Amino acid sequence: MALLEVEDLDVRFYTEGGVVQAVDDLSYTLDRGERLGIVGESGAGKTVTALAVLDLLDDPGRIEGGSIRFDGEEIVGASPERLRRLRGGEIGMVFQDPETALNPVYTVGEQVAEAVRVHTDREGEAAHDRAVALLDRVGIPDPATRATQYPHEFSGGMAQRVVVAMALAGDPDLLIADEPTTGLDVTIEAQLLDLLDDLAADDLAVQLVSHDLGVVAGFCDRVLVMYAGQAVERASVGDLFYHPRHPYTAGLLSAIPRIGDDRDRLATIPGTTPDLASPPPGCRFHPRCPYAEDACTKRDPPLVGVDSEVRRTSESGAGEAGNGKARRASESGADASDHQAACLAYVDDADFDGDLDFFVEVAGDEDDAEADS
After folding, report:
1. Is the pLDDT of residue 325 over 70?
2. Region (Disordered) spans which residues (predicted)?
């Protein structure tokens, strides 16, 4: 049994402009100790999915269908008391902007200690000592002194570490991180990812929401690609970066800048994401897809299993984001059923005649080949 099981999740926002289908029929699982990356453009439904897991959707957003099970327990429709114990207890969340996640009028030590008091049996000095220990765990120097300081006295990276400490206060089994590296310079970003990597080594499951494919490639085990509220591809990191099976994923990868790239302009995906109050019929990506056929305008493609064989080629570029963990994962192999894509090209009874002929080059392959020879 997976730690987190999301099945057929539907989230709607009821606005004056219409009903926005923010998340549509989404399913995925997350095991203990696993690292799942959820990627896609702004408006894809990544953050809404994360908020739905904790029932933190603001009005007019509602979960209209589906199931969310945590450790076998259904949490859609759970009581407010149960949800309070779950949030920050068994499931911790790191929000995107630490400046809004932290209260400017309380010291950071008091804010972490408050989370400790709510989710554990520690009170008073014991809660304070635990807060200092958590600040030390997330790499804040001189934690006892820094605990007495206020959020404005912390840099962006250090403030984000405080938010991580708060999320860990209840000793959670699952950590949901929503764009945790946004606004951080690359050095601080690397330090924060190293911290999350150390935490995940302690059997903590991590759901990482990000638009940065390089971050996902270096940190995650599996990737879920979302477009317009739907899952369009799901695979191991190695399969996704070496051999994407959905045109949208290939478009995202082609836009990654590479060291030594001789292109004058980065590749882009034409058009914009659709209005989810009136999404296009059929495949939601078809207005932007270079491979779209008439059938794509009429039928919504299901997420189906595809061949997971990794193809290494030098004909086109996805960038060096496929290095490291992506290469190790691909070389270890993967079950074909673990690689799924929502495209009519893989549906046997679909009236789709063309071929998807995109390829991926991963930087470093030539160096590896020379080293092996």
Report:
1. no
2. 300-334
